[in-house]
Amino acid sequence: MSTYLIASGIICFAAFAQSVSGFGFALVAVPPLAVTLDPQTAVVTASMISLAMTSATAVGERRHIQWPATRALTFSAILGMPLGLVALNLLPDGVLTGVIAVVTLACTALVWRGWRMPATPFRVGLAGAASGLLLTATATNGPPLVAVLQAMGLDPRQFRATISAVFALGGIVGAIGFAITGELDSHAAGYIAVGLLAAALGGWAGNHAFGRINATQFRRIILGALVVSSTVALARAVTLAT
Predict the structure, then answer these.
(1) Residue 130 burial (10 A CB sphere; 0-12, 13-18, 19+)
(2) 25-60, pLDDT tens digit by residue?
(3) In 133-161, which positions are buried (b, 16+ CB within 10 angstroms) versus exposed (e)?
(4) CA atoms lying within 13 Å on the CB side of residue 20
(5) How confident is the model over 102-142, as pLDDT tens digits?
(6) Dist CA 1 CA 6 (whole Å)
(7) pTM
């Protein structure tokens, strides 16, 4: 029961952070979940809850979705997903926890610096493939998509709608992959069910807090928390490896 409570608290805070700052549910949730649960369950749980959240946003903002970019990124993401599933299934817990920590730290640095890359067809495909691999291996698939969609010059509503649509469509395919490989089992389903309630509460609180909180300062706090949680996960990985 204690792990359910801890996981619910982590997920609630991650949903609150995303509602206020506009990014990072998986970045916030996965490293501490990987330490609290096991890495595989953490990735599947965060991915499924993120799928529910992004699907709701995509449906609500569907008029602003840029479908050419959505189709290109989703197709290339699907190509990268099998490699992520292989990593999720083959890597030992300690190694996978370390990979999650390192990827999260790298993604945090990219978000912190506002990294962008030119949106050429090759780079769009590369960003999508990297996103798919990261989704099924670590659930932290946002930064490549953020970079390429920012480079496309979308306005805020188009950006939010389009990235949510890519997350949702990719998440559906990822969920099928988790089911096929046996990662989406009854153990993970329990944490997903509890986590959905926690995410709804955190999202509701974040939406009400939005506008009352200095978003810039809060974003810095979240990024700092990401560094701390990733460092803890990396230390846990070292402990498991020794």
Answers:
(1) buried
(2) 887 898 889 889 988 999 999 999 999 988 988 998
(3) bbbbbbbbbbbbbbbbbbbbebeeebbbb
(4) 26
(5) 877 887 777 677 777 777 888 889 989 989 998 998 888 87
(6) 9
(7) 0.81
